[in-house]
């Protein structure tokens, strides 16, 4: 038996990664296994839910075994099994939820249901301790939210997207440029080579609002591409990528900065798949360098979906003994 306070085995299957991890005390990663299906969904230009579920079923036990083995523990050492309860694709979530319940039942361990976005925020705790009050910008394929936290496990959404999520806009613009799925990393790469020449709109919404809107920008880019194609004019893909990305990042950075100032936070956490973006990371660093707000952005492997983040978020619930019953169900629209 290793020296420990608590060990959590965590499972994440909300979208297209089958992931399992063992996390100690919510802060230390003992193993983090991610089996991605990205290459499979690439053929279809996006995630096909039925295909995702099928692959989760195929991978789940393999990934679980690997996570336990790599952590050098046995199921006896594990104190609780945590799983992403939602939001996400229902069929995909169900594979993880059922695996977690079966394991917990078989080994007599409690189950903890975790909100996927809480996971993204807590990915940071595997690197750096939280300092409250804190603000988190969560930018992923399904979410764009500003979340204020005064203590562990307490989440207040102070702003969110009114339409498309930032990652969704990246993926749709990438598709319009005939780039492979997922589009975020492709646009990120191309944007390093281009200039902001297309002057796409920046949507700040009404004064004082921390909400976001990216569908107008997405439509502006798509309309521009149609026009250029109709007129037979050349499309400078790098410049389109840079122009689009500048519009997204200007708004993300400005609103986050204003909210951090208004709420007087000590720490700013950037989380979710889009936080892997090179320019977003650099721009956040520049903007917060002059402030006394500490900036925390996870390393790339913790930005996109993984189970370690679910284990980290679950640790807080474990200490509150906030356990789920064996009736726990996948909740695709789970609120925070
Ligand atoms: O958090 P995540 O892995 O899954 C969800 O919970 O949605 O985020 C995936 C999203 C996708 O939209 C993907 O295009 C975007 O994150 N993404 C990026 C980058 N890497 C991933 N967006 C911009 N730049 C990147 N480098
Ligand atoms: Zn995610």
TrEMBL record:
Fe cation binds at residues 116, 120, 305. Its cofactor is Fe(2+). Substrate binds at residues 138-142, 171, 184, 188, 277. It is an enzyme of class 2 (transferase). Binds 1 Fe(2+) ion per subunit. GO terms for cellular component: cytoplasm. It is found in: Cytoplasm. One of its GO terms (molecular function) is iron ion binding. Keywords: Acyltransferase, Cytoplasm, DNA-binding, Endonuclease, Hydrolase, Iron, Metal-binding, Nuclease, Transferase, tRNA processing. One of its GO terms (biological process) is tRNA threonylcarbamoyladenosine modification. Its EC number is 2.3.1.234. Belongs to the KAE1 / TsaD family. PANTHER family: TRNA N6-ADENOSINE THREONYLCARBAMOYLTRANSFERASE, TRNA N6-ADENOSINE THREONYLCARBAMOYLTRANSFERASE, MITOCHONDRIAL. NCBIfam families: gcp_kae1 (TIGR00329), T6A_TsaD_YgjD (TIGR03723). Required for the formation of a threonylcarbamoyl group on adenosine at position 37 (t(6)A37) in tRNAs that read codons beginning with adenine. Is involved in the transfer of the threonylcarbamoyl moiety of threonylcarbamoyl-AMP (TC-AMP) to the N6 group of A37, together with TsaE and TsaB. TsaD likely plays a direct catalytic role in this reaction. This is tRNA N6-adenosine threonylcarbamoyltransferase. It comes from Alkalibacillus haloalkaliphilus. The gene is tsaD.
């Amino acid at each position: 038996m290793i020296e420990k306070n608590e060990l959590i085995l965590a499972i994440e299957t909300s979208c297209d990664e089958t992931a399992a991890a063992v996390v100690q005390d919510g802060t230390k990663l003992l193993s983090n296994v991610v089996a991605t299906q990205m290459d499979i969904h690439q053929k279809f230009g996006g995630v096909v839910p039925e295909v995702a579920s099928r692959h989760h079923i195929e991978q789940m036990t393999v990934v679980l075994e690997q996570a336990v083995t790599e952590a050098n523990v046995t199921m006896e050492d594990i104190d609780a099994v945590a799983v992403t309860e939602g939001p996400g694709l229902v069929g995909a979530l169900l594979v993880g939820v059922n695996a977690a319940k079966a394991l917990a039942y078989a080994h007599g361990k409690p189950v903890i249901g975790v909100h996927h976005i809480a996971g993204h925020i807590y990915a940071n705790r595997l690197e750096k301790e939280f300092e409250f009050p804190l603000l988190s910008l969560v930018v992923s394929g399904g979410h764009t939210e500003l979340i204020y936290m005064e203590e562990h496990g307490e989440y207040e959404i102070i702003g969110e997207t009114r339409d498309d999520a930032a990652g969704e806009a990246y993926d749709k613009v990438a598709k319009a440029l005939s780039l492979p799925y997922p589009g975020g990393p492709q646009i990120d790469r191309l944007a390093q080579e281009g200039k902001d020449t297309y002057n796409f709109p920046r949507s700040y919404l009404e004064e004082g609002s921390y909400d976001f809107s990216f569908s107008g920008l997405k439509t502006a880019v798509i309309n521009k591409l149609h026009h250029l194609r109709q007129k037979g004019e050349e499309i400078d893909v790098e410049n389109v990528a840079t122009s689009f990305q500048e519009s997204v990042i200007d708004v993300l950075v400005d609103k986050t900065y204003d909210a951090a100032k208004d709420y007087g936070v000590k720490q700013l956490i950037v989380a979710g798949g889009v936080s892997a973006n090179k320019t977003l990371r650099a721009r956040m660093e520049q903007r917060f360098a002059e402030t006394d707000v500490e900036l925390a952005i996870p390393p790339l492997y913790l930005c996109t979906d993984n189970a370690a983040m679910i284990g980290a978020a679950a640790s807080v619930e474990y200490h509150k003994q906030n356990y789920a019953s064996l009736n726990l169900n996948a909740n695709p629209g789970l609120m925070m």
